[in-house]
Description:
mainly beta; 218 residues; 2 domains; Jelly Rolls; four-stranded antiparallel β-sheet
Amino acid sequence: MMASQDNWNGARTVLATTEQVTMPQTPNGSLIVGYLNQSKQNNQGEITVTSGGLAPVSYPVPALQQMLSLLVGNWQANNLTITNTSDAAITPVLVQAFGPGIPGAAPVNLPYGTTITLGVPQAAQGSSKPANSLLRFTANSGALTIVGIVGGPTNPPDQTNAYVIALNAPVGTAPDGYYAVVQGNSYNFKFNWNAALVYVANFSPVGAAPVAVTMIAL
């Protein structure tokens, strides 16, 4: 996929060193950014993020990892630029972003009581009922599967309401940015968000099977 895009909608993109993507306007809400070092060598990578005239912030991109690194935030409808600033020339970095309200992104419908299947990388959204509910995620293979959820209230209001869960995880402890990891292929996420938007996305590594998603009223 072509890099150095000025009108990025969060689509999975591999950035060579010095290349960048820019989302001209982020959603005014939670956004989940995932990134992964694609180098086959032990090259430590780095991305640098800028938004809304704030000072650039750099993040390491570890080499030879399976788990996506995560940056979860609310850029409050400002622009967002991600640049591959790795030192080593051959250090491509995969970047992707998911969240409700991204211009140009069209999630499918997420109904109650019906199982839908999300491939990589697809998203869905629907409305929650004013009752206890759960989202059930089931991976259709033993491969690492990573899903994100955005929904419900934020407390305090300027914080995020995003949750990232890994199924078939190669680690037993949730890395930074993850809400939960399980070494099995299924996870139930319980919530009670009144009548709120519920957004889910499958942003697993390339090669992962689709994930089954069911929203159930309890």
